[in-house]
Design a protein that fits this description.
alpha+beta; seven-stranded antiparallel β-sheet
Amino acid sequence: MRASSRLTRRAVLGLTAAALPVSAATDASAVPAATTASAATTASATVIGGERLARGGIQVDGATGLPKKITARAWLIADCHSGEVLASYNAHRRLAPASTLKMLFADTVLTKFERTERYRVKDSDVSDVPAGSSLVGIKPGLTYTVEQLWQGVFLRSGNDAVHVLSHMNGGIAKTVAEMQAKAADLQALDTHVVSPDGFDHPGQLSSAYDLTLFARHGLKDDDFRGYCGTRTANFPAGGKKTFQIQNTDRLLTGAWGLGVYKGLFGVKNGYTSHAGNTFTGGATRNGRTLLVTVMHPGPGTNAVYEQAAALLDWGFGKGSSARPVGVLVDPLSEGGASASPSSQGKGAAGAVGTGAAAGSGASGPSPWRVAEGGAVTLALLGTGVWALRRRRRAAGASAAPASGDAPTGSDGVPKGSGDAPVDSADTTAG
């Protein structure tokens, strides 16, 4: 899915990163979106994929006509094949990811089990599912295929299915540790994993940039792509009985008054009372595949989908002339350039007030230039990355769980819908 002609430029663009302890990361969901439009790079930003992506505000170059009614606190649109970021807003802002974190769960666990493998669920496999979670309806004592469990994860955002697969994988703690290691390999340095399901937990954070990395990596796998694009499936109910489950991605199914988005093939949506709505989607038109991530939009039952669709429309239209403002880096295990630590000094200060207005160019260094700080020694690089991962593991081990209660949605979703309307702000789901 990569374009070989982009490798040299991509390698240069992926060299810059600021490795910061998790304690410095702030969940910006409590900060009004309006205060970030011209914000400088903050202490929580991670500079990877190009220094433009670390700046606050809209980043776009060479194209006009970005949608005006985008209320999301962070968003990003990129070309899936080349990895070039066409436009972004607070790409590295750390926010609660909700069930979009399940993409990283799939990236980590999906290839470990054959889809035809069968597993009899024990009480202990689902006893640790948080109250208020989104559920597909797994029953202890029943036997499920791995394929059915993944359908529960992707279609219904079922935390019960995630926990069963996690226990098959050796337990929740082991799965969380592997997810964090996978995020490090993908160079998703904004992400801190506390639980594998995306449920609200203190310190569980990601970014529009990282979520898009998870989607792009996952889509290289045929099973991942097949599951995220499945609209309906029959799920075991005991004996020979089944019940139908429907994908909660409204742009895929056309539910809740939305039309099916032309060319859309997934990938993952989410909702919690803390995160609000999050969504990463992919669509193909005229041979071009785009990825879009939208996090924490303003109120509105379909806001996250409407804003994602508007950004995709722009990407397939006026965004075709956009010059990239950054790049989705390749995993380290696939030859991706290792990120280098960069001080929050001159580079960060230079970003103050330089977020480009929609349709205008931006002042400042070229996105293809290696950022300042490249002279940092290799020893410092190793120490910084090691310290970041160690602090993240410690934070994940000490985080306390959250809980809540979610009613059954009007679309018949079991208690704790992973795609509840944003209006249901008093609910918690994952």
